[in-house]
Amino acid sequence: MIIVLKPHATEADAQAILARIEAKNLKPLYMPGVERIVLGAIGDERVLAELNIEADPIVEEVKPILSKYKLVARELHPHDTQVPLGNTQIGGERFVVIAGPCSVESREQLMAVSKMVKANGAVAIRGGAYKPRTSPYAFQGLGVEGLKLLKEVNQELGIPTVSEVISPEDAEMMAGYVDMLQIGARNMYNYRLLEAVGKTGKPVMLKRGLSATIEEFLLAAEYILAQGNPNVVLCERGIRTFETATRNTLDLNAVALLKQKTHLPVVVDPSHGTGIRELVIPLSRAAAAVGADGIIVESHMNPKEALSDGHQALTQDLFEQLMRELKPFVAAAGRTL
Amino acid sequence: MIIVLKPHATEADAQAILARIEAKNLKPLYMPGVERIVLGAIGDERVLAELNIEADPIVEEVKPILSKYKLVARELHPHDTQVPLGNTQIGGERFVVIAGPCSVESREQLMAVSKMVKANGAVAIRGGAYKPRTSPYAFQGLGVEGLKLLKEVNQELGIPTVSEVISPEDAEMMAGYVDMLQIGARNMYNYRLLEAVGKTGKPVMLKRGLSATIEEFLLAAEYILAQGNPNVVLCERGIRTFETATRNTLDLNAVALLKQKTHLPVVVDPSHGTGIRELVIPLSRAAAAVGADGIIVESHMNPKEALSDGHQALTQDLFEQLMRELKPFVAAAGRTL
Amino acid sequence: MIIVLKPHATEADAQAILARIEAKNLKPLYMPGVERIVLGAIGDERVLAELNIEADPIVEEVKPILSKYKLVARELHPHDTQVPLGNTQIGGERFVVIAGPCSVESREQLMAVSKMVKANGAVAIRGGAYKPRTSPYAFQGLGVEGLKLLKEVNQELGIPTVSEVISPEDAEMMAGYVDMLQIGARNMYNYRLLEAVGKTGKPVMLKRGLSATIEEFLLAAEYILAQGNPNVVLCERGIRTFETATRNTLDLNAVALLKQKTHLPVVVDPSHGTGIRELVIPLSRAAAAVGADGIIVESHMNPKEALSDGHQALTQDLFEQLMRELKPFVAAAGRTL
Amino acid sequence: MIIVLKPHATEADAQAILARIEAKNLKPLYMPGVERIVLGAIGDERVLAELNIEADPIVEEVKPILSKYKLVARELHPHDTQVPLGNTQIGGERFVVIAGPCSVESREQLMAVSKMVKANGAVAIRGGAYKPRTSPYAFQGLGVEGLKLLKEVNQELGIPTVSEVISPEDAEMMAGYVDMLQIGARNMYNYRLLEAVGKTGKPVMLKRGLSATIEEFLLAAEYILAQGNPNVVLCERGIRTFETATRNTLDLNAVALLKQKTHLPVVVDPSHGTGIRELVIPLSRAAAAVGADGIIVESHMNPKEALSDGHQALTQDLFEQLMRELKPFVAAAGRTL
């Protein structure tokens, strides 16, 4: 149920109504806008009806929520959400480039690539400390040691960091080390994990599952917002199809459709989306053109020695070329880099 | 590394070698066979080499493990594993039928359907207490209340139960209520959860992910076995394809292939695999024919009122027909029902 | 439009109505049943209405056709169709096994494998003379020379033959050499070819396209029936999915669903459906159990030297094993082999 | 076999060698370059060896062809091919926009939309006269009548036309009416049709099959080039995946990869690739950014009354917006519109 208050309604008016909603064990939502305060109430429709909120003189209109994903839909929230990341935002005028290694491997490795991508215009560093690997015998990441290195990079270079969380019990702890928590594609349906990152209030990058429909993807985001955390960035990273010439099939249709259906920012991961270093630049250009709010790419000073995903990491030369080639397309999209 | 001991080797000989393996922080495996004791050592190949185990006079042969999934492959373990479930086993002569509701909804609902399916030959009851639902607003299961009802059914009817675990922190607790822990399709890549159920030592039913390859599926099982838990049953439950006439595409190719590649039992879930009540019986017959060790089906006394997945649940009439129709195919496969 | 005539209606009554339908350039259908004569009229609904057929005293009822595929749906034709193939039928009590090489390579090769599979119970010989190959440089089949060899086998061994047609202009000519025309998976959407085989009146085996939905498959059959040829057998041969461990994913869901939706016989091709010789037997058993009317398998006396698809062809030993293993499952399905 | 001639070799030298190749029933290829004449010989490797071409003093080097697709690979032909279309080319500096209705419906409909898209910068008109429809009862196109209308548009407006051919026997005839023959997605594996359009020598637009791999797509083009017709444009038009929110999944990975693997031009069809009018513009921008040589879009003056695919056709307003929005992205790609 969406409750639009009259123009002169105050925050106190809103709180009174929210208290009534909460007293019935329904989920209250407070959405102050520039012109009006809008409230939401989510839960059993019959209980909602008992509240008889339409009768309140401060209420202008009460309407049902049609989308299955009530909090992430543009229906309730037509303006683009901007998610903070360090001193910048994702979803605003700037087309953000987040870069870094697949895995944090050592202080030297992380610092070198972070300096390089920052010097070339990256706004944040990505790097995995906990790696969900297909084989239990593969390198699983440096764990807390990796998080400490990310914190060091953040403090030394003054650049925010993004890293993947793979267990609900780690969410709070990781929020102390990094600026944005990433949910990987394999955990998109891990609803307990979504709830855990929702509770931290920390910005979250949610990657689309390997074969998740767009509706499932939006509902996964809804799990996070339903915990009171509005700072979610969606990431299209390729879906699994019959095609084997590329690692995944980057679904740019989905990006265009998501931008219409939700107010959340959408970024693209062309590294996993193609799995081939030589395809990262053209697909990054396409991401800017299709309307994405940024990209997240893997980069490594020496990809041949990377402990994971070396074949898709950009070398320094290619990263520099990426930023050069992106520029006119970002400008064509009316944004800055 | 696979270490085959000489015929006269004792358990004490084996333990001595295992201690050396463990001292190097490698994973030791003890696999006593009818004729020989076989040991395994999993970890960094260079460290393994330092052990110079070939030189031990009690060792007959040392060979590398070729499969990526070392513990689940038939390579190391040619005989079929039988996983205990109450008084019966999965993977033996008996073709097992596990049945019950999608969700545990109430004592009456669960008890009624449990009695019915038990009377018709089901060897275990399935029922969800924690439901991983696409929408955060959908019925999420009764939680501990549901587990208590499953325990009651177990004690009153003397039949084992299977229920899904969705969070690592719940694994130990749930092991106290049910006889087999299920990992759902959405959590097949949730490696922390796999490790958690591995640590409980409890029998596990591992469902194939929506778009998991057979190799990824076997490696997910490997995560559980690598924690020292050999009691894993694989469950094919349909994959996601372009076809929309059925909910999923049941992949019986995978069942035949899995039976060749692994010693673990394989069961089939035709309820989720088709999503259509009328297709459950023919696909159950096909599961028996293709070589599966059993099926797990959804059943409900009144599917129209089910809180989840009612359209694919078998009524009493259909469940009785299922058991009747299965009989000759199970016999043709040289097994009993 | 379905037109049910009154019980006492004669064939002459029916012909009078059919003439009126034809005079309006609509497609008339004559479907005499045991109890009633049923007629059909397919075409522009407004023109149909002008005929005012309800007013005819010999007409009991006029109703619209709801299925998109009007001629292949069970709606209009509840009883199973039996398609003649030499002295036998597909779709009757007998579970048919059609076998032979992927390609006709030589007289010796074809004769040897034909004798072997016939001796073991195959009811028809398959063999490609025109091969639609992915590469223009691959062996394209012997052409008319291959057809002549199939005719020789037919005459010498008294067994019917099936062979693929790949061009509309060949349909009539091929109908003179073989007993059943096959439309391959790659040509399922080749509507001109479907119309051409429809016009020959010859029995047709229509294979499902690589990524054809069940509805598209049934509509492809409808193209053939709409030319007046009711003798169509549907063949499920595996669909293209993300899984690469098998060549295709055999979709037995589709077989069960097709048997409910259409009166046409359905056979299964486990050779292409799996692409792995060792999986052909278990999937053939499953095909019998799921309700298929038969299988079509590739067999070769010396698969290592086959000019195409050798890895999935059954050797003599495996073919004999197939027939032995099939027997109890075919019996369990209430049919004969 | 690739045969590189010495710098001073003349065309007569080349013809002498080609004659020797042809005399052995091998396929000779003549590929004069700016610096060198390169010849090709395709066929049985043993016969090729017998020719002993290395020994010819005019031959500098003989090397094997590694690609499966010998004529379409960049390996043999590093420079971009430009395919003529009326007075323009596809594959050159200009980013081409081809537009028009799904089906030619009437003179008025075709002329109106053709004038509109031409006035806005389209370089060619698309329009189907023969429509391969899923249902035999759907509108199948105007046939020759439609071709005549396309010819009229061509003569009256001086703009080239593209139309789909669905039967080998129509290829020659259609070549007399239109400027480019289109092979639709459903006929990509229809090798006889590919050969037929190859023989006409007319420019061909080859659409990727619904679930065709990139290798299969290139080999389909190879079928056309192998008939001596070098004028092939590849068209990515979306593949079939599990996603149902869009009609198909436009695979821009494929476009970037194709541009690396082949010298043939590649265009994108965002109308079929998305199936949603509102997504056509963002995906067209992305097509320009990823490196495509143009787009082909459906447009209709009154989409609600279109006989086919109305939901994805651009109205005049949207077509004008498309051309406006494309401009900066085409410029960013270093091309002209």
TrEMBL record, chains A, B, C, D:
Database matches in SUPFAM superfamilies: Aldolase (SSF51569)
This protein's name: 3-deoxy-D-arabinoheptulosonate-7-phosphate synthase
Record keyword Transferase present: yes
One function term, GO molecular function aspect: transferase activity
Domain DAHP synthetase I/KDSA: 91-324
Pfam families per UniProt: DAHP_snth_FXD, DAHP_synth_1
Domain of life (superkingdom): Bacteria
Coiled-coil stretches: none
Keyword Transferase in annotation: yes
Keywords: Transferase
InterPro entries associated with the record: Aldolase_TIM (IPR013785), Class-I_DAHP_synthase (IPR052899), DAHP1/KDSA (IPR006218), DAHP_snth_FXD (IPR041071), DAHP_syn_2 (IPR006268)
Domain DAHP synthase ferredoxin-like positions: 1-66
One GO BP annotation of this record: aromatic amino acid family biosynthetic process
Organism the protein comes from: Gallaecimonas pentaromativorans
